[in-house]
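Cast an eye over this sequence plus tokens and explain the fold to me:
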Amino acid sequence: MTVNGDKRVAYIPDGRVMLVDVLRDQFGLTGTKVGCGVGQCGACTVIMNGEPVTSCTVLAEKAEGSEVLTIEGLAKGGRLHPIQEAFIKAGAVQCGFCTSGLIMRLYALFSKNPGADEAAIKDALGKHVCRCTGYESILEAALLAQKEIKALV
């Protein structure tokens, strides 16, 4: 698979290894978190072939030949992505456990639809669980990021 632009090879001893485990344990990309382990919390969200997926529910062997983007792949040239910057500016980060998944989901949304309406943004954010920051600051970050991204386009 290609991860964050680099060709990578994973060792999969049996068919029960999940993509999140390969990313974290074999490739050292620990920004992708393991929360619930059943695809309900969104903490493990990455982009696979342009679509957001919960990597705890994707068998690693299914990622063969895929393009995978993780939170580590968003920053370019030492500069954070506008979504990452917006989360900092809006104070949408406390413990940070859910943050990478939220950012990746928003990245997928804004990549396809930079002008997404607030209902679409809330729908995307509704696929995630945050227990400490509060959803108002997360929505504020999403709207701020959208404004920044639209200015770049």
Summary: The mean pLDDT is 95.
